[in-house]
Design brief:
There is one protein chain. The chain has 214 residues and is mainly α. Among the domains are: 54 residues, no CATH class; 47 residues. The chain contains twelve helices and no strands. Helix 1 runs parallel beside helix 3, helix 6 crosses helix 8 and helix 10 crosses helix 11.
Length: 214
């Protein structure tokens, strides 16, 4: 079921409304299909917001549970990990103003760090509105109020530059791996190369299966 939901959530074509409805109703929070559905344009902002908090699982993920006790492996989420989940919603193009304040009703800055969330949002090409709201937040224990001045705008641009650099380096790495896979003579050689070098992702799989005639 999880694989079917993931295939639907990552489909390269428009998903019919009835299929979207089924996926939203049946997906398990915090799995890959859930994350992918949060970003789909067929899913409305209201639907995505509801999906983000489905079953309270995201909020429970930050609870502190000692090792060896029930729930340990699904709790104790770090700020960085939590930011990745929340940013899947915040990076949507239709997120309305005030979204950060709504998020803060669930997670304060000690649980979900401002800079972790800003980094995650810029990596997903989040809007100016969301990025600026985050940058304007006062740091934890700061006496200043919300402000968006040159320093905060420069912070957003720095994180965006970092995200562009990461994306460029990732694309170059994928291109190099794909080229190396395609240089192999047959399917077995391509698969063996991918296995030895830990190649993952759709591009590597496509190159392994179809070679140069993909």
């Amino acid at each position: 079921m999880d694989y079917l939901q993931l295939a639907i959530a990552r489909a390269r074509i428009e998903i019919p409304p009835n299929v979207v409805g089924w996926a939203l109703d049946s997906v398990t929070p915090m799995l890959r299909a859930w994350t992918a559905l949060l970003t789909r344009r067929e899913v409305t902002d209201a639907q995505a917001w509801t999906l983000l908090w489905r079953g309270g699982r995201l909020e429970r993920s930050v609870e502190k549970v000692p090792q060896g006790e029930a729930g340990y492996y699904v709790c104790n989420a770090s700020s960085d990990r939590l930011a990745g989940h929340v940013a899947s919603y915040l990076a949507r193009p239709d997120v309305p103003p005030g979204a950060i304040a709504r998020i803060r009703e669930h997670f304060d800055g000690t649980v979900l760090a401002r800079l972790d969330l800003l980094r995650a949002v810029t990596r997903r090409d989040g809007s100016d509105t969301v990025s600026h709201e985050l940058a304007a937040e006062p740091p934890v224990n700061s006496s200043r109020g919300h402000q968006l001045g040159p320093r905060e705008l420069a912070l957003v641009e720095r994180y965006r530059n970092d995200a562009r650099t990461e994306a460029r380096e990732r694309a170059q790495s994928i291109a190099a791996q794909t080229s190396a896979i395609l240089s192999e003579d047959d399917l077995i050689g391509r698969v063996e190369y991918a296995r030895r070098h830990g190649v993952r992702g759709f591009e590597g799989l496509e190159a392994c299966l179809f070679g140069r005639e993909r």
